[in-house]
Each structure stands twice: as structure tokens, then as C-alpha cells.
Amino acid sequence: MSNSKTITLSVNGRIRSLDVPSHRTLLEALRDSGHVDIKRGCEKGDCGACAVLVDEVAIDSCLTLAWMCEGKEITTVSGLGDVENPHPLQTSFKQLGAAQCGFCTPGMVVAARSLLNDNPDPSDDEIRYALSGNLCRCTGYTKILDAVKHAALVMREEGAGQ
Amino acid sequence: MFSEFCLEMPDRLEDALSILSDMKGTPVAGGTNILIDIRSQKENPPRLVALGDIDELRGIKVEKGRVVVGSRTTISDLLKSSQLLKTSPSVIDAAGQFAGQMVRNTGTMGGNIACASPAADLVPPLMSLDAEVRLASASGSRTVALRDYYQGYKQDVRGADELVTQVSWNALPQKSVNRFYKLARRRGDAITVTGVAVTLSVSNGKCSKARIALGAVAPTAIRAEKAENMLEGQVLSETLIEAVATQAAAECSPIDDVRASADYRRHSVQMLTRRLISEAWNKLAQEVKSHVK
Q1: Which of A102, B14, B79, B268 has its CA 20 to 30 A from that of A90?
Q2: What is the domain partition of chain B in residue ranges?
Q3: Going by DSSP bridges, is the β-strand pair B47-50/B6-8 parallel, antiparallel, or unpaired?
Q4: Which residues from chain B sit within 8 angstroms of residue A59, using beta carbons?
Q5: Separation of CA B275 from chain center
């Protein structure tokens, strides 16, 4: 029935070979190999906690089979930046209080990054729209919206300075 | 954790059709419906055929007034198309309220049609544009009007060896309005309570063509054809629009569920039909007036 094979993909810039059966989701395969910054939420495509970038496009890793990502570049929230060298979105989420319990934050940051890839200067409505597949039970979204707006500004200024 | 299944990932359409020819494969496009159904054990397919690597099924073309969309085209692809905004505004209305960003990036037009949900958001807009569905199998292909595609709740005419390969329709003609309204609890990430798509065309000061397509208020998406017939050939008045809205509500057969009651759904069909037809007619009023002069 189900068969297993070794797939090779890039996770946050590192090439990984994972031995996974055909019915394993990308979420399970990555969490099982230590990438627990990706959160398992509803597993129905509603909450967005498991969002990762696949070739720079945000997808729900709970609704993606690992085999479908053979040869692709996966970026999780940890791949965007770390404590020493944070991404502007990570800095803004921290400074503006956009994370409370923090469970939705990895998915929120990834979805926001996907938005800013396409649209460096989004309106409030465009931010709300891009984050409509990410649920947060703590913040009421206001500070998340502020953080994405602020990060976009920082990134535009950094871009202009280069 | 899923129950086990085999997974095939062909990169050419003819290979996919050859795999499906034994009638035992289940096609997967974005997977945003089927994988949820497998996880909840509503579905238990022994073999999935993933279409993600088949590039020839993805893309949007407008040629000689005909819009042709490959079945693997994602909802996000639709939203990025300026050609669709011009030729098929109701499709963009629907794509713009479809799930959340990540699902829009993976979910596809073909999947939305072939999952055969009565609440599939692209279906009423496509019905209001008289869309046709191309089905292909290893032994040939056929074209079915979308209005004839569904046979009952989650039942369609697609054979187990067939694949939806493309969807096509005529670009919206001049002097026409085409809109979709999705009634739901929130603007994104919500399943439709009632969906209404309307196309209205005028010529010689009269309504020359009317389409009213309804979603989530019957076992399948439906056209309110009697209501449409009341509009065609007429100069629209408030009284007529009211009667048409009442007729559209009479043509649906909604159920009570977690999202809304049948009564509320029927009421909302009447209100939304009245609103969309009135707005369309008002927008076309310039055309009507210039003819009367």
C-alpha cells in the first residue's frame, strides 16, 4: 500500500534528506526532523499556524504531502532570521507586542513575509486580506497589523539605503 | 496522521490519464479539500494521483473573446490576472473572498469544481458566465456545460478515469454587468452561507440576457432559470425585480446547518438577488437612457 522513499529538499538553506512514507504531510516530516518552530494547529487549513514558504510561496504544511516538496526550498520562521540577526518582521512582532501566547506567530510571520514579497507597501486592508488564513486568539490582530506595517516600512527603508 | 495510500506524481497529462485509466486513482490538485476528508476518514482512497507537477494544466488565456483556464490554476493565479478582472469580474469577486492566503496559493479552479461541493465559491460565478468544463481520459475528451456537470450533493458527471483539464467561457460582452456576492460570517476563511452570482446584459434598452446562479442553497450550485426568464426581453422596474427575487428564492432548496437556517438562506437569496439585479440595472442605466433618447 503505502510506500516510503528518501526525498531531498532544502530547509532554511540546508539540504536535508528525509525518509518519509507517501502519506506523511510536510508538517509531520519537518516536525519529526526537529523543525518544531512550525506549529500544528487545526490541520484543516483554517488556522495557518503551520504556514511555511515553499519556493517563496506561503502554504499550509498540514495540507501538503512531503513527497510533493521534493527538490523544493522550504523556509520556516527560523529561516527568516535568528536572535542575533532577526528579520524586520521578527523585530517588529517583538517590539510592538504582536505576540502573546506566540502559537500563531510563526505562521503569521511567514504569511506576512509572503505578502511583502509581492507587495512591499501594503494597505491595512491588503494586510488583513493576506493574513485572513491565520487565526490568533490573543491579540485581536491590531498589534499584528501594526507590526506588519512597521516591518514593511523598515524593509522599504533598508531597501532604499542599499 | 493519514491512513495509508499510494501516491503517484506524474509530470505529464498523458501519464496522469494513463494512471487513472484503471478507475482506481483519485486526482489531487491543491489537496485542500481531499486531504482534510482523508484525515477525518470521510474518504479513504487507496491511491492518489497528484497533479502538481503537470505544468500544462496551469495558466490563463484569453483568445478571440474566449477565456480558457487550466484546471491546475490556483486561486492566487486568478487574482493576479488583469485579463480575468476585465473579462470575468464575478470570478475575481469569488477568488477575492476565498479561504485564506495559504489555501488560495494551493487550491485550484479544477479542484473547486470537481470537489462538487454546493458551497464551492467559483461555481456560481462560472455558471453565471455559462462556463464549460473539459474532461479528458486516456480514450479522449468531452466538454460539459457547468450547469449540467452536477448530478446531486457532491456528485458530478466525471468518470473515475477522467480529469477536469480546463474551464472556459466567453468574455463578458459590452453593456453587461457580472457580480458575485458571498454571504458568510467573515470576509475570509469562511464557508459560504449563501452565494449569488448575476450577469445582466442590455441591448435596445431592454435586458437581453440574464443569469442568476446560486451557491450553498441546494444540493448543488444551481441556476434560477425561471427568474432569469422573467428578466429577459424586459425593461426592468422595481416591481419586476422584486418578483424576480421572490422567484429566485422559490427555486432554491436550502437546508438548516451549522452556518445558517434554511429560512435565513432563502430570505438571503431573495435580498441578494434583488440587490445585485438592481445594482446591475442601475449601472447599465446610462445605456438604457441613451437608447430611449
Answers
A1: B79
A2: 56-170, 178-292
A3: parallel
A4: 102, 105-106
A5: 20
Q: Is the Cβ–Cβ distance between B214 and B194 less than 8 Å? A: yes
The pLDDT tens digits along chain A (162 residues) read 558 999 999 999 999 999 999 999 999 999 999 999 999 999 999 999 999 999 999 999 999 999 999 999 999 999 999 999 999 999 999 999 999 999 999 999 999 999 999 999 999 999 999 999 999 999 999 999 999 999 999 999 998 765
Locate A68 and state its grid cell: 510533493
With CA atoms as reference, the chain B residue closest to A40 would be B1
Is B31's Cβ below 8 Å from some Cβ in A?
Answer: yes
Judge: B52–A51 Cβ closer than 8 Å, yes or no: no
User: In sequence order, what are the beta bridge partners of B50?
Assistant: B28
Nearest CA among A152, A131, A137 for reference residue A48 = A131
Architecture of the domain delimited by B178-292: 2-Layer Sandwich (3.30)
| Burial profile B149-183: b = 16 or more Cβ within 10 angstroms, e = fewer | bbeeeeebebeebbbbbbbbbebbeeebbbbbbbb
CATH fold of B56-170 reads: 3.30.465
Q: How far is residue B28's CA from residue A31's CA, in Å, rounded to a whole number?
A: 24
**Residue A147 distance to chain B (closest CA, Å):** 18
| B7 touches A at CB < 8 Å | yes
| CA distance linking residue B21 with residue B162, whole number of Å | 8
B104 touches chain A (CB under 8 A): yes
